[in-house]
Amino acid sequence: MRFLPRVSLLLFALVAFACPAPAAEMYVGTYTFFLGSRGIYHFHFDPATGVVSGGELAAKTSNPSFLAIRPGGHSLYAVNENPKGAVDAFAIGADGRLTLLNQEPSNGSSPCHVFVDQTGRNLLATNYSSASAEVFAIRKDGSLGKATAFERFQGSSVNRDRQSEPHPHSVYLDASGRHAYVCDLGTDEIHGFRFNSANGAITPDKTASARVAPGSGPRHLAIRPGGNFAYVLNEMGETVTAFARNPGDGSLKAIQTAPALPSNFHGWSTAAEIVMHRSGKFLYCSNRGHDSVSVFSIAPNGRLTPVGFTPTGGKTPRSIAIDPTGKWLITANQDSGTMFVFKIDQKTGRLIPTGQRILVPAPVCVLFP
Fold first, then answer.
1. Cα dist. 87→76, 121, 320 in Å?
2. Does the N-terminal or the C-terminal CB of the chain have fewer CB atoms within 10 Å?
3. Which tens digit of pLDDT belongs to each residue from 124-172?
4. Please, is 330 exposed, middle or buried when counting C-beta atoms within 10 Å of its C-beta (0-12, 13-18, 19+)?
5. 164 Cβ contact partners less than 8 Å away, ≥ 6 residues apart
6. C-alpha dist (Å) from residue 119 to 19, 66, 82, 171
7. Residue 24: which pLDDT band, with cuts at 50, 70 and 90?
8. How far apart, in whole angstroms, are the C-alpha atoms of residue 246 and residue 256?
């Protein structure tokens, strides 16, 4: 009788090995003024093979340029990046389609980023053109309540064309949910805040604030697992600023600024997205103009070393995303209406083209629940 449990375990292992991993969902936000796009598109992603299938319209909405999903995966949120901005709340159906729950004004112009806190009770957003950030309550059904906090920014920096006023481009929370960071392209600042998830309040915190070199234009941010380091992608400077970070008080101390482009490139290019590999060993940035993904390895001391620059397969890669397994990276090429899948070398971080090309009009945000 002793051998029966071993046989059962062996059969279980064989069955588990034979059964493929379930397909993941993938949502793509777009610009609807371009290439005939109509809103948010839904795809199926096979994490075992990296194959993307589907591509139906999940929801018709205007300029959903950035997306976020509530913990639990039942609700999705999208900005409407328009002069009169708004934020949409959707319920996610069993078939992946989206049903509009409600829409709230963003209380500003050109909202371009949203972030849902770890409790699922609050949504943070930034308005690029009207220089503000705010917090919305999320109701139990996933719909949005009214704004619980609102912050307007002031200041400028050295580039008269793009930095005559603040342009908050993104907002993030750390893993604790207590520290918020707003990357302000217009003032070259990372504004720090203390965040209270219980009431949705944000309080300015100079301790957690930082600056980058004048004219850099901070756009997006990534925090390394463990919280000891943060990385800011500078859109105008085409650089990445690495910060040593204190998880306790959220403070940032610059330790390095690394170029995001090859030294022999002298054309026009602006940085777009930055993503951290789940291992914390690699960092990826997209470059519009050079049309590439910069790959960095991250040392234990937080410093970056360039690994290479991989062509994205299309024009103007506004978004890149890594699937939940950490095996695949997707590039979303806005101006060519294409996405490409790359396999990630788990030892070096290098990107290996799979040759898979997916058509989607004007993709600007790729999101895995």
1. 10, 15, 22
2. N
3. 999 999 999 999 999 999 999 999 999 999 999 999 999 999 999 999 9
4. buried
5. 156, 186
6. 33, 20, 28, 16
7. confident
8. 16
Residue 36, both tokens: 């005939």
Residues 193-214: b if buried by 16+ CB within 10 A, e if exposed: bbbbbeebebeebeebbbbbbe
Q: Per the structure block, which two tokens stand in for 138?
A: 């999320």
Residue 324 has which token pair? 């939940």
Task: Name the one residue in this structure whose structure tokens are 């002069």.
Answer: 83
Amino acid at 87: V
Say how far apart CA 11 and CA 266 lie, in whole Å: 59
SS3 222: strand
Helix (H, G, I), strand (E, B) or coil at 124: strand
Note the pTM of the prediction, 2 decimals: 0.93
Cβ neighbours of residue 122 closer than 8 Å, sequence gap 6 or more? 116, 135, 136, 137, 138, 148, 197, 200
Do 48 and 24 touch, CB atoms closer than 8 A? no
